[in-house]
Design a protein that fits this description.
Blueprint lengths: L2 H22 L3 H17 L10 H20 L1
Length: 75
Amino acid sequence: MEVERFEELLQACRSSLERFVFYRIPNREDAEDPLADIQLKAFEKRDSLLDPQRFKADGLSDLEKMKNNFFMMQA
C-alpha cells in the first residue's frame, strides 16, 4: 500500500482510535504510548493490508490488546 493511501486511512480513523484509547487509559501521557505504537505497527504492516475496510477494526483490536498489556505491566 502506498504511503499516501495509508495516511488517508489513518487520518480517517484517527479520532476513533484516539477516543478508544483515551477512554480506556484516562491519563493522556500514558495513553499516547499505545496510540503511537499502534500507528507504527499499522505502518509496518501496511503492505500486507489486504482489505482497507478492515483498517479501523484491526487498529481497534490491536489497541485493545495493547491496553490489556499496558494494565498488566502496571500491576
